[in-house]
UniProtKB/TrEMBL annotation:
Domain of life: Bacteria
InterPro entries: HotDog_dom_sf, MaoC-like_dom
Protein name stated in the entry: Dehydratase
SUPFAM superfamilies recorded: Thioesterase/thiol ester dehydrase-isomerase (SSF54637)
Sequence ranges assigned to domain MaoC-like in this UniProt record: 21-118
Amino acid sequence: MPILLRGIEGIRAYSGFRLGKSSWVEVSQDMINAFASATDDWDWISVDEARARRGPFGKPVAQNTLILSLIVPLLHDVCVLEDIGVNIVHGIDRLRFLGPVPVDSSVRLDVELKSVNTSGESCHWVLGCKMECDVSDTPVLEAEIVYCIGPAAQKTIQLATIG
C-alpha cells in the first residue's frame, strides 16, 4: 500500500526516510519491442532475439531508457500525493545504469525521500531511486529524481532552482 503524502508539509515529514518498494513488473520482449517502436531505439541487443542470444548477455536486454521510464509508474506503488498543486519532474541530479535487465526478468523500485526544499508556494523534493532486478544482487539503476511542486494549475509556477 502506498504512503499518502498530504501537502508539502506531509512530504516534508518524510524527508530522509525510505518510502518503500513498488511491486515487481516483468520486462517482456513485447514491452521492449513496444518501447523500441515508440522511441525508434532499435538496438540489436534489445530487439534482435537471435543475435542477442549470441551476444554478451545470452539474451535480449531492455534499453536503459526503458528502465528509466519505469520509475514514474512504479513510483505510484510507493507514494500518493494529495492536496498539492502541479507536480512535475524537474530533473535528474544523478543517474547511473549499473547492470543489464534481461528479457523476462522483473524489476521494482526502492525509493528514499532524500530532501525537501521550499520557496514560497513551490517545493523541490528529491527522490533517491534504486531499480532492483530479480536476477541481480545489486541495483540495475540508481537515480536522484527532482520533482517540483507548484501552486494550483491555474497559477504560473517558477521552475528556477530553489537554493
